[in-house]
Structures are given as C-alpha cells and as structure tokens.
Design goal:
By secondary structure, this protein is mainly α. The longest helix has 39 residues. It is rod-shaped and about 50 Å long. 0% of the residues are buried.
Length: 44
C-alpha cells in the first residue's frame, strides 16, 4: 500500500521535475550551442 503511494508520488515528482527543467535545458542548449559554435565552428 505505502509502496504504491510512494511510487505514484515519485512518478509525479519526476514528471514535475522534467517539466520544470525542460525550458532551462532548452535555453542552456540554445546559448551554449550558440557560443560554442561561434568559437569552434562545430555543432554538437
């Protein structure tokens, strides 16, 4: 019983974390990719 509840909470927490971190990851990729491509001329 408690294990099932813990699993559900863990899945919800993981989904929330994914949704929250996605925009920051996209921004980091945009800015990181732009700065690294201008320096090395290579796309990751």
């Amino acid at each position: 019983m408690f294990r099932a509840i813990a699993d559900v909470l863990r899945q919800i927490g993981g989904a929330i974390a994914t949704v929250v971190t996605l925009p920051f990851r996209a921004l980091a990729r945009l800015f990181g990719g732009a700065s690294s491509s201008t320096r090395s001329g290579r796309r990751a």
